[in-house]
Amino acid sequence: MLRKIVDYKKLSHEVAALLIENYPHGYGDSDIIEFKNMHGEYVEAVEVKTDDIIYLVKISKSLSNFIANFDDSIAKELVSKPEGFSDDDSSEEIEQLTFENEYEVEEDLD
């Protein structure tokens, strides 16, 4: 199954709705997945699964605010969305990373 690392700001409306459905009251420590990206940087993310893609949504300071205010923000975005814009336009900007293993785990971080 394909895994995509993406910032919540670049999620399609459908995947954003799944994010809210999976984490309606926010996410906890047990929901966070930590891994190294292809640049060797540690990334923390939460997982959102669709039928064919697992999205790893990068955690940022504003993600919890986004989850809390999703209904208001989606209404504003739908009203202000310019004509001719499609959710597929951002797909080129999404980082893709295929893992050989489920996740890389560092045993000793010191």
UniProtKB/TrEMBL annotation:
<feature type="region of interest" description="Disordered">
    <location>
        <begin position="81"/>
        <end position="110"/>
    </location>
</feature>
<feature type="compositionally biased region" description="Acidic residues">
    <location>
        <begin position="85"/>
        <end position="110"/>
    </location>
</feature>
<protein>
    <recommendedName>
        <fullName>DNA primase</fullName>
    </recommendedName>
</protein>
